[in-house]
Amino acid sequence: MFFPGKITICEVGPRDGFQNEKGVISLEDKIFCINQATESGYQVIEIGSFVHPKAVPQMSDTDEIAKHIKRKDDVQYRALVTNLRGIERAASCGVNKVKLTVSASESHNMTNFNKKPYETINDFQACVELADKYNMSVSGAISTAFGCPFEGPISLDRIAELVESFMRIGIHEISLSDTTGVANPKQVYERSQILTNRYSNIKWFLHFHNTRGMALANVVAGMSAGITHYDAAFAGLGGCPYAPGASGNLSSEDLVHMLHEMGIETGVNLDQAIKLGAYVKKMVNHDTDSYILVAGKVSDLVKEKPIGQINNNSSS
Ligand code: ZN
Known about the structure:
The chain is α/β, with parallel strands linked by helices. It contains 15 helices and eight strands.
């Protein structure tokens, strides 16, 4: 099995995590969490989204967040946008990386944009041109890329069509999102292999939700196919819009922990990531989907209990 030596993680908790929280999260708390994510060593952080405040009230302060966070030069601060107004807002508060999202599912995309997915991407061209003027880098994301709750499986041909549409408007960084947690490792491996071979000039991100417990396995599958960029959210925040109460994003600290156990570098300080996850869990005041926050690190276990002691105490 092939594994890369280094993986880059994008911390999407401030956007994909917080936007699913019912309780209001204060501006101060959001800024604190993003600053801690920077300090922990994440190289990409999704800080919020520039969408209409009525559409996603929890994200209405993204402009203020962008103005007040402590940035590091080697960290990319990414925000989600859907239109020209979003690009303007991003530019006015110094955000230099934006993400344009389309849904691979026609019905899902019709609900969001009232257009077919490829038409949505064609319309993004004006956004890319404006972003260029502001020297902003633009990435694309394809949600429900592994399956849709309304349409079922999403074909590889559909994904290829959307990837090519993104390439035509000048986007060469694409995230494939398993928005509803339906992807399985075999599918991820096969799809990633075909896409990375066919479109070798694309920088790929994979974004998994742990709705059905398959997220870490899917990362392993994606890594085996050579993909080195993954999204994850502190404490495993987030949710699934079609399965209320279901688990959220893959937890960042679980991902960092697994990779470090495998000897794969992330550039993230695991202890700081765990501290941040614990802070977030306490702040939102409900259970979240993070194994490490409950069980602790494997390395702590070994330190605390020498092998002899484990044998003496174990009953089965
Ligand atoms: Zn997501």
